[in-house]
Amino acid sequence: MKVGGIIFAIGAAFFILISGIYWLVSRDPIGTTALALCGGLAILVAFYVLYTSKRLSPMPEDRMNAEVDEADPEYGFYSPHSWWPLFLGFSCVVVVFGLVFAVWLIVLGVVLLMLSIIGWVFEYYRGDFAH
Fold first, then answer.
1. Residue 43 within any structural domain of the chain
2. Residue 96 parent element (H or E)
């Protein structure tokens, strides 16, 4: 975790430096604000990761003498055949179009969004891939 925190701290310094350079070159307040906020978010993540790494025992990624077998082999589960993320993304697009064009599209998008989330959560409880 310590290495990840250091990487985020370097990223934060980079974005803050670039935001200053960007302001000097372009005088664009929107881009400068976006870069500065990106640096601020990187500071938040770096602080959290570095603070948490002090409270935990060193992970295998942080030790130079660690073996490959010491790392956690399970990083989670991703369904390679799921179509639900596509429907979820389509539902989000409908909600955003509703913000632009009409309120009834927001309602339709939220309904589709809820159905997509329910389908994604419960896809392994029914059908061919039920456990």
1. yes
2. helix 84-100
Taking only the tens place, the pLDDT of each residue in 111-130 is: 999 999 999 988 888 777 67
* Per-residue confidence (pLDDT) for residue 18, from 0 to 100: 98
Q: What is the mean pLDDT of residues 23-38?
A: 96
Cβ neighbours around 10 below 10 Å, total: 12
Q: Who contacts 81 (Cβ-Cβ below 8 Å, separation ≥6)?
A: 129
With respect to residue 49, please indicate whether it lies within any of the assigned structural domains. Answer: yes
What does the DSSP assignment read for 15-72?
HHHHHHHHHHHH--HHHHHHHHHHHHHHHHHHHHHHHHHHHSPPPTTT-TT--GGGS-
57 and 6 share one domain: yes
Considering the domain boundaries, does residue 107 fall inside one?
yes
Cα separation, 112 vs 110, in Å, equals 5
pLDDT band at 12 (very low <50, low <70, confident <90, very high): very high
